[in-house]
Design brief:
The chain has 88 residues and is mainly alpha-helical. Helix content is 88%, strand content 0%.
């Protein structure tokens, strides 16, 4: 049994398909470049957020130290007032 003959692709059809594939590849390359820029911008934003969180941690630690110092001062004042009250 004879095999049916496959249709032959003309040179014009090959050129047309090649141009189409080339255009698709160029579009894909442009999209990939856009994604790369977005990823870079996202990385910069994440780094900036990390720095902000770190600064907030430092500020929170400083605030905690100030609260501890204020508590100690108030305790000392309370002891002084109690002492004065006992001696009055």
């Amino acid at each position: 049994m004879a095999q049916p003959e496959k249709p032959k692709t003309s040179a014009r059809e090959v050129i047309r398909l090649t141009r189409r594939v080339s255009g698709s590849l160029q579009d894909t390359a442009e999209q990939a470049a856009g994604v790369a820029v977005s990823v870079e911008e996202l990385g910069a934003s994440v780094n900036q957020m990390a720095a902000t969180v770190e600064q907030m941690g430092v500020s929170t630690e400083g605030l905690a130290n100030m609260i501890t110092e204020t508590t100690s001062t108030i305790e000392q004042m309370a002891r002084s007032v109690a002492h004065v009250a006992e001696n009055a």
